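Ligand: molybdenum atom. Inputs:
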Amino acid sequence: MNGRKNGRRKRTPVVYERLTHPLVRGSDGELRRASWAEALDRAAVGFRSARDEHGPDAFAMLSCARATNEMNYVAQKFTRVVMGTNNVDSCNRTCHAPSVAGLTAAFGSGGGTSSYAEVEVTDLIVMWGSNARFAHPIFFQHVLKGIRAGARMYAVDPRRTSTAEWAESWLGPNVGTDIPLAHAIGREIIHAGLANRAFIDRATSGFEEYAELVEPWTLRAASKVTGVPAPAIRELAHAYASAERAQLCWTLGITEHHNGTDNVRALINLALLTGHVGRWGSGVQPLRGQNNVQGGGDMGAIPNRLPGFHDLLDPAARHRFETAWGTVIPPRYGMTLTEMFEAMEHGSLRAVYCIGENPAQSEADSEQALRRLRTLDHLVVQDIFLTKTAQLADVVLPATAAWAETDGTSTNSERRVQRVRAALTPPGEAREDIDIICALARLLGHDWKFSGAEAVWNELRSLSPDHFGMTYDRLEEHQGLQWPCPSTEELPLSYLHGRLWAEDETARGRRAPFGLVRHDPPVDLTDDVYPLRLTTGRRLDSYNTGVQSGSFASPLRRGEFIELSPEDAEEYGVRVGEQVRISSRRGSVTAPVWVDPALRPGLAFMTMHFPDEVDTNQLTIEANCPIAGTAEFKASAVRIEKLAVVG
Ligand SMILES: Nc1nc2c(c(=O)[nH]1)N[C@H]1C(S)=C(S)[C@@H](COP(=O)(O)OP(=O)(O)OC[C@H]3O[C@@H](n4cnc5c(=O)[nH]c(N)nc54)[C@H](O)[C@@H]3O)O[C@H]1N2
Ligand SMILES: Nc1nc2c(c(=O)[nH]1)N[C@H]1C(S)=C(S)[C@@H](COP(=O)(O)OP(=O)(O)OC[C@H]3O[C@@H](n4cnc5c(=O)[nH]c(N)nc54)[C@H](O)[C@@H]3O)O[C@H]1N2
Ligand SMILES: [Mo]
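Predicted complex:
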């Protein structure tokens, strides 16, 4: 480190090298190079002994939301058929599990209802807790087209983000006050006579209870709790309810809270109140995180769903898969990622097969996460880089990168399944994820061979009616297709839940219930000792735990900072680049300061992108949404102290 007079330091970011050959932990405790045969054998022996000694539920799989649908299908099948448990999950748990839970509760299925093209033709776009300009730049191009075509955009985010800069109006609520804000909008819509009574009567249930629940949330009451001026709340309520068509989009500002699913329900309520769902141009859209996190869930790489989003507790669905796979599927949900970490604590989880996830750095309260990972008897990590998680492993298996070195399909946020193709030669001895899983299955007594990704896809198609119409040829011909696509002849509809508008009651199907959810402030309260509200998130230039984006040099990648409002910087007497210690009730890190007028006093922002330099997750709290298991990454209480000047 080069100290400088003003306390600035030059930092060299950690660069991860691609994994080129298998590694196993030697008797000296160090990882050493091994042959594929030795590494696979070590991996299989560890899984078998965990299962034989402690039962199938002592095993868990983390499946990769960046890899293909086909890989996720094979990974969940390995978990259910080879290991005999439903303990399979992914990073969906850390981000949009509340969206899936909230949408399923309201509409019976967990997908976003709209297509990207709809934001180009809609009249109003609400970006709620979403910095799409940075985190969903491709989607944001569609948003910009919509704005150019005359759509109005509202941004709801405690920070005046880059996304908010494009909005007609920005509402900046205090962190964790989205339910009061949504309820006040709902109340205003009802009182102004702007609710869509015809839609409510025909397609929803629970309206009277909802109206009663939101009644105390007057503009004034909500303004007090949220910090958003009453006229701004009123304006959004009127704009949303009067728009001919409106798209309500949200992401982690809504979901990464201890009550993330409730937050999602509060937003969906607004669409039910106005009928802004189930029509072209109107819908609710959580923009999913990793490139194939939607597909991973669709493929059943989650503990409660079989491929095609069939509920695992549905005996008919289970029976169909049991017959196809020649196995018995345990009739109970497996562990979520969150529960897996709790089970490590209790000692009931003994072996983990972690494919393309880096939980040692992405879990809230990372000190605790690391301690828990160390309790495992057997950890196998299959990745393209030697991550922090891989450095803890007993066996490390080098995979090819799904996005450039592998054939298959992947599913984006608008439910569009698209082909990906191997374009680059993988480095060293790296093998495809599917090949590696099948080799392990064979060592564990299952004669698995797939003659390529298409064979896997066709097996999935035969078991998931929503995917049946998507042959590889058709995916090629139409440049991707959206589910549900049951027919090989017809093209699918590009939005969901049009049935809610059907004249005929039977065709309309199940009513969508209003969510009767209440305000519940963040768990980690600010006080005199920890007076600042820290929220964490993303920047345009970096990706998640930095493993994949760490190796490129760019003047844009500034490394980690704690971003403070100009007022707080002044109060603490710190300037841009000066080092401060940041402490929460869980841990403490040091980082340089950045001053950003996008922040209001009392609010600080850090990313999750540079954990090797500044491990932000030492500060975050593992307060989980009881329904979805997602942690409250968006609300920690911290204090900062200026460090002595170096140099
Ligand atoms: N460049 C880049 N793009 C990415 C990623 C990346 O790492 N880098 N990661 C991908 C992944 S995995 C995901 S899940 C997505 C995430 O995409 P986003 O959810 O857009 O990203 P975040 O920055 O985590 O959070 C969004 C916003 O939530 C706001 N927020 C915080 N607390 C609250 C609150 O209480 N209420 C409201 N209304 N808003 C709040 C924050 O200020 C922040 O601007 O991005 C994906 N795309
Ligand atoms: N403080 C804070 N923490 C957060 C969040 C936050 O907002 N704030 N957000 C959370 C969210 S939304 C998410 S999604 C998680 C992300 O958490 P993780 O998913 O744990 O983190 P990533 O850095 O995305 O790790 C992806 C890994 O997949 C590997 N990989 C990529 N492609 C392939 C492939 O084809 N095959 C294999 N085998 N491996 C591959 C990469 O090398 C990398 O190691 O972090 C969560 N943590
Ligand atoms: Mo995510």
